[in-house]
Each structure stands twice: as C-alpha cells, then as structure tokens.
Write a structure and sequence with these properties.
alpha/beta; Double Stranded RNA Binding Domain; 3 domains; two-stranded antiparallel ribbon; 8 helices; 45% helix; elongated
C-alpha cells in the first residue's frame, strides 16, 4: 500500500535527468510548485531550451554525473536509456534520495499522480503505477464534475477557518465541529451562483451562531 502525501517543493532542488517530451511534462508540473529544477541531458526539446534561457530552470547540457544529485530533494529519471536510469537510481539511493523512473514502476520509490486542481484544492488520482493512462482519464472525468467555483469557495472557507481559530483559540474539538458545520450551509451553492458576498454572510452566520454565548 502506498502512503499519499502532498510535498512542499518551494525552493527545493529537483533533478530531472533527461530532456525529451516526457521530461517536459514532469518539468511543467514542478515549476508551478516553485521547485528549483535541475535539468541534466546533452540535448533538450525546444520548450525546455526556452525555459532554460528564461532562467526558469538550470540546464546542465551533458550526460548524467553523480554530482548532479548534490543538494537535491527528489530525483526524476526520464531518459530512454535503461543503463542511465539505473545509474540515476543507484546514485539516488546511495544518497538517501527518493527517485521516480518514468514508465518503469519497479524502479520507482514514488509515483506521480494525475492531478486535478481548483485553486488550493488538489485531487490526485494514482493507479500505483499500474495504468497512468487510466489515472489521466479518471482525472478528466472528475474535471467535468467539479465546479470551477471551488477555488473561490475554498478561499472563503480558509478565511472562515481563520476567524474560527481567532474566536476559539483553545478548544480544538469545538473548532473542528464548527468548521464542519460551515459545509452544511448554503455558501457553496451561493458561490456557484456567483454571489460571493452572500456566501460570506452565510458562513459568518454559522460562525456567529457557533461562538455566541
């Protein structure tokens, strides 16, 4: 069984060995997380070259060297060379680093799920390396079901949660019960209708009722 988690990569270095279209897909998911991408490959597709020229990532234009993993948090091997991939895995493990080898589940320490985002909301779908294509299709199906306004709704919930913590600083169980009660009011429907002001009023009504007296 896999252990799911959400990893903060802001300011952390992630090595991506390989610079083809597969590596590009990985890089495009890392950059929005503010990871410091270190690309290692003799050649790169035009899109990755452009990102390097813009300073969005660091490109070491040569074959993989063990020193490329110095200071890294994660490692992704995205080459078509099995020998290179195994060298990357061996070196990563020697340094105590977790590594993902694209399309080679048996060499992976972790799998990268297919992710659906609505602002701060992230819904990750993983097949445990069994069928990434199915994960991607299921993500697309979920994308059609989740309303685009969820990002705005979550922002309001975060604001309401902060207010609850301000009013109830020393009773975690009471805060938890009140936070759950927020989900039962009409705020979500109001946000979906585009009425953010009324949604905020509805949330604060619940907070006032739960903290009065």
């Amino acid at each position: 069984m896999l252990y799911p988690l959400s990893l903060k990569l802001s300011g952390r270095t992630v090595a991506v060995v390989g610079a083809g279209v597969v590596a590009l897909r990985k890089v495009e998911t890392l950059l929005p997380c503010e990871a410091r991408v270190r690309l290692v490959a003799p050649e790169a597709v035009p899109e990755l070259r452009a990102l390097a020229e813009q300073g969005a990532l660091t490109w070491r234009a040569r074959r993989f060297d063990p020193a490329d993993l110095e200071g890294c948090t994660l490692v992704i091997a995205a080459t078509e060379d099995e020998e290179v991939n195994r060298r990357v895995v061996d070196e990563a493990h020697r340094r105590g680093l977790l590594v993902n080898v694209v399309d080679v589940p048996e060499l992976c320490d972790f799998y990268v799920p297919s992710v659906l985002r609505r602002g701060p909301l992230a819904v990750a779908v993983s097949s445990g390396g069994g069928s990434p294509a199915f994960s991607a299709r299921l993500r697309r199906e979920l994308d059609q079901q989740l309303h685009p306004s969820l990002a705005a709704y979550l922002e309001l919930l975060a604001e309401a949660r902060a207010e609850i913590r301000r009013r109830i600083p020393d009773d975690s169980r009471r805060r938890m019960v009140l936070s759950a009660a927020l989900l039962d009011c009409e705020a979500r429907e109001l946000v979906e209708a585009g009425d953010l002001a009324s949604a905020r009023v509805a949330l604060w009504r619940v907070i006032d009722a739960g903290t009065s007296g």
